[in-house]
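Methods — Computational structure assignment.
A single polypeptide chain was analysed. Its primary sequence is given first, followed by the predicted tertiary structure written as structure tokens.
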Amino acid sequence: MTKRIIETPDSGTCQTVHWLAKFILALVALAAITGCQSEDSIFNAPGKQNSETNQVVTLRAGDVLKITFPGSPSLNTVQTIRSDGIVSLPLVGEVKATGHTPAEFDQKLMDLYESQLTTKEVSVEVQSSAFPIYITGAVLRPGKIMSDHPITALEAVMEAGGFDYTKANMKRVIVIRKEADGTKNYILDLKAVMDGKTGEPFYLKPADIVFVQEKFNWF
């Protein structure tokens, strides 16, 4: 008569299988987080900050502009950009301001006022500006913050109460940004920034989302 031998896994094998299962689940979670990132994502290695992330912020609704005409002071005015992106100016009427840098808007106004200026010079100065930034993930006070000055990703995290150090993965902080060609993700090592190991800071743009991921727990 043939005997059947049934082997049962020992405790070491069970632990190995249990560990592998957790490892696979962690990989699945990582894929879920990173799978939707744009191929243009930038890893913020020390000294390799991409200049396109620090472009000059363009004019936007709510900005208060001081517009000066050195050769025609009677045209000087202070205007708040309306929600539709328009300012109302003497002689030329309504002009769209949003989407331009201050320098670009200077040139646009010089073209509009060309026949009325004795001195071809216009100065556009942003007197005040506030824009929203959204912070989520492993920070102490997630939510929306309003900034009236250029702000870096690390400064925004500090405005949100700082990292939750029991959970935060400071080496992989994602900035989600809507751009003309779609949404892009920029991956930052803010631990290196805090340790003084990086060069140029990463400045945020209006409506950026800063996502502080959590560390993986392997056990």
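Note: The chain has two domains: 11-54+131-214, 64-128.
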